[in-house]
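Final report, results section. Input specification for complex C-07:
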Amino acid sequence: GEDVEQSLFLSVREGDSSVINCTYTDSSSTYLYWYKQEPGAGLQLLTYIFSNMDMKQDQRLTVLLNKKDKHLSLRIADTQTGDSAIYFCAEISGGSYIPTFGRGTSLIVHP
Amino acid sequence: DSGVTQTPKHLITATGQRVTLRCSPRSGDLSVYWYQQSLDQGLQFLIQYYNGEERAKGNILERFSAQQFPDLHSELNLSSLELGDSALYFCASSVKGSSYNEQFFGPGTRLTVL
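Structure output:
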């Protein structure tokens, strides 16, 4: 079945860039997503990318997709303490419309 | 605020008991999804309803059941509870259910089984 893998933790200094990585196994993935979960809250869609795109930029967020390596990354420029949260990678493949989520990466931003 | 509400926020109960979690989707959303988030399993899709009918099923145990009512709110029933059922249960909603639409998540219900 589909599998989505992420590292569990990332620690950065405020003002630096953060890069959160994700790998997936299903080559028929059509949409790939990044969700953010703040403490005590549900998941919130941050951004998504279609599988026929290599890159998507949205203000401080840059998503890079390497289909050959099945690798997705989320870069947050000028990381702020308010960016501290858990970031989930998710993918949809084939005829499904239910996303498969990774376990989430806890981003800790130090002042 | 996503517009999706879930009640209760917290629930503490004993093994063997039965509980009901409630979800109200965003206004206009026809589809409701239930997820379970635990430390060992991550975020697991349980079940989806669209306009009152079951649309997709994931890793939902037979002890669990759900339904969506005519007013589109949904309930997740968990019975014969075990310690391992302790988790965060999220509800999400989207406009449609037949193709991908952004899912809006509620704040979750934290279930603790003692």
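Chain B is about 0% helix and 55% strand. The two ends of chain B are 31 Å apart (CA to CA). This concludes the modelling results for the funded period.
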